[in-house]
Amino acid sequence: MSQISPPIRIVLVVAVAFMAAWTLFLRPKAETVEPAPAPAVTQTTPVATATTAKAATEAPEAGTTASLPKPVRAAIEDGKVLVLMFWTPGAADDRAVRRELAAVDRHAGDVVVHSAPVGRIARYQQITRGADVAQSPTILVVDRDRKVETLVGYADHLSVDQLVTDALRNS
Q1: How far apart are CA 148 and CA 132, in angstroms?
Q2: CB-based contacts of 147: which residues, under 8 Å, 6+ apart?
Q3: Cα separation of 128 and 131, whole Å?
Q4: Closest to 167 measured CA to CA, from 79, 71, 81
Q5: Among residues 150, 158, 163, 165, which one has the least CA distance to residue 50?
Q6: What is the CATH superfamily name and number for domain 52-170?
Q7: Per-residue pLDDT tens digits for 73-95
Q8: What is the DSSP string of the chain?
């Protein structure tokens, strides 16, 4: 150590101290997302991972879906799994994800896939109220028990198929 110049020694000590501080105190912790508490209203719906956002809440009850678009309302009332995508038509990632949705397995009619521009999200508020739809593309998978899983950002059809398979298995 006597052959190392004092300024270099200082830099090495500071670097080691910084790495120790980073490891012990400054490193970001894994984020856990708690399910959002259901509102007092009977109409409800959560999430969480960079590309995958997961947290389960509940979609609307069958009798409270009157204001939803017809294909979405029919899927919920018929007890089917609903894959609902909110997208921005001008965004390249959104268009790519929308093309991926065409390849999602429909499981012999048990799965309904629907997409809507983010600008029309208010029409889907009975589903999106508890879900985090803060960016596009966002995909919501509503299972038969009206639990919602959210996928945020680019996702291929295999990722969506996995959520659909989980929704079919768990409901």
Answers
A1: 10
A2: 56, 57, 58, 59, 167, 170, 171
A3: 5
A4: 81
A5: 150
A6: Glutaredoxin (3.40.30.10)
A7: 898 889 999 999 999 988 999 99
A8: -TTS-HHHHHHHHHHHHHHHHIIIIISPPPP--PPPPPPSSS----B-TTTEEB---B---GGG-TTS-HHHHHHHHTT-EEEEEEE-TT-HHHHHHHHHHTTS--GGGTEEEEEEEGGGGGGGHHHHSSS---SSSEEEEE-TT-BEEEEES---HHHHHHHHHHHHHH-
pTM over 0.70: no
What are the φ/ψ torsions at residue 58 (nearest 5 degrees)?
-120, 140
- The rounded distance, in Å, linking the Cα atoms of 47 and 35 is 7
Here the tokens at position 150 are 């959210």
